[in-house]
Each structure stands twice: as C-alpha cells, then as structure tokens.
Amino acid sequence: MSMNAPNAIKNYKKRINSLLDEALPLSNNLSTLNDAMRYAVINGGKRIRPLLIYGSGMCLDIQINKLDIPAISIELLHAFSLVHDDLPSMDNDDLRRGLPTTHKKFSEATAILAADALQILAFEIIANSRPLSDHEKTKLILLIAKACGSSGMTGGQSIDLASEGKTLNKSELHEMHAMKTGALIHASIMAPFYLMDTSKHDTQKTMSEYGWTLGLAFQIRDDLLDIEETTEVIGKTANSDIKNNKATWPSLFGVKESHKYCDELLAKCLDHLEIFNHKADPLRWLTNYLINRQH
User: Which pLDDT belongs to residue 245?
Assistant: First the structure.
C-alpha cells in the first residue's frame, strides 16, 4: 500500500472540515439554532462518509470539486441522524464524541430543530451546487434520499428500536444493519458513480458490493467497541447497547464470532478493491482503519 495513503486521507479530512465550516450558518444572537447546528457537526467526527466519497471518487478520476458536494451533504445528514439517535425518545445518550450530546448541551427542542435544519441544508447544498449539472443533482438527491428514508437509515433506526429485547436471526440483523448504517455508507461509495459521464461503469457492481460489505463490518465493529472499550476511549457511553437491550452481533452470536466475521468482511472488502490497483490505496487504508479501529 502506498505510503501516501494516510496523507491523502489527512488532506481530505482537512478539506471537508473546512467546507463544513463554510456551509454551516453563523451564530445568530436571536436564536441558538445555528449554534446547535454547528455544535452537532463541527465538534469532532471522523468524517468517514466524506472520506469514502473522496476515496471512491479517486478510483474513478472524478473532479474533487464535484465530490465536495455529496461529501458535505452526506456528512450533514449523518450529523442529523446522530442528533436524533441520541434523543431521550431514541437511544437516550448523554455523550457524543466525548462531549455532551446536542440535546444535553442545548435543549431537546433545539436539538430536534437543529437536526431538522441540517437535513434540509444537506439537500440545499446539492440543489445550489454550481459544479453539478441538473441531471447530476437529481441523481444524487435520489440516491441520498433513498439511503436516508424509510427503506434506509430512518427505517433501520425504527427496526432497531422495535428490536430491543428481542432475538433476531442473522438475516434480520443483516437487514437492520444494512438499513441503519450500511445505506449511507453505501451511498457514499456510490455517489461518485452518479457524477460520471457514462451511465454505467464496469466496476459499479463490485463497488456496490464493497459498500454494503463495509457498512456491515463497520456496524459490527461499532457494536464490539461498545462492550470492549471505555467511555473515555469511544467518546460515548460504553455498554449502552446492553443497557438498552439492543440486538447486536456480539450479543446474539458472541464476541469471538463477531471478531472473526469482521476479519472475513475485511478480506472481502479488500478483494473488491483489487480492480483499482494503486488508485484504491487511500480507500484500502481507510477500510483497514474502519474495521480495525479502537474508538
């Protein structure tokens, strides 16, 4: 793997952080809404989904200024989902990224409004984009909206809540993870394909499979961290899945089996990236990091 891969990831992260800072509204003395929006996005965050967009786009030689648009949009939508997930009516978490959750920092009402505004801003960013054609905008909006809706992230959260205290089989757990976590990660990988001149690229099917596989592995790793690491390390309340009786891979199939499955999924992900040779080095580095991360 190229020694430049970590530097590429570092530069992409610096780029998206700057773009997010520019995209978010400035403080308003009459309301805390803008402050809450900035707090939910700017304070920490690995920027995983934007980095996946840049990495996938690099494999396809897409212009970086075009990749900026879905990178900003999807990260705003990810932040929106985290604010909602943390609410007392959802997972009832007090910590996120080592800091008080948005509803703890401000108020529950302000957190809800801030998340709603982030969701709307995400699509406004695409609609107002100059580098993208109207056709590209439409395709991106459809891709991202589906990943976030009832058949994607929101639907997955609904299943997650309904599954508390229940035993799911592997197929049911796969479906929940694919919707709740995998859909937005998959959309991040596929977004660059919607910015190409050709209607279908010969690697599209392979990268689609890579996106779904990575999404599943990412969620299982997240579930493992919840029970294996401390609150200080992961930046959110440890053992919250146990507290909320969540249906997770470790709780249903064991820690050892979960680690083994993560290793198998990592191997599959890396196999999918072989078609791009050195162009996929940043994506390979990121894949290894995500599935083996310690926080």
Answer: 76
Beta bridge partners of residue 28, listed in sequence order: 31
Number of Cβ within 10 Å of residue 127's Cβ equals 14
Distinct helix (H) and strand (E) counts, the chain: 16, 2
Provide block-wise average pLDDT over 10 residues at a time, the chain (295 residues).
79 97 91 96 92 97 96 98 93 88 96 97 97 95 96 93 86 92 97 83 92 95 85 66 78 91 96 94 95 85
Give the C-alpha separation, 150 to 153, whole Å.
Answer: 7
Q: Quote the pLDDT of residue 238.
A: 63
pLDDT computed for residue 293 by the predictor: 86
Sign of the torsion formed by the C-alpha atoms of 146, 88, 118 and 56 = negative
Token pair 């596929």 in the structure block, residue: 190
- Helices 64-86 and 5-23: angle between axes, nearest 10 degrees: 70
Which value, in Å, is the radius of gyration of the alpha carbons in the chain? 18
CATH number at residue 206: 1.10.600.10
Structural domain total, the chain: 1
Report how far residue 140's alpha carbon sits from residue 176's, in angstroms, rounded to the nearest whole number: 23
- What residue numbers bound the domain in which 126 lies? 5-292
Tell me which amino acid residue 72 is: I
C-alpha closest to that of 102 among 239, 75, 110: 110
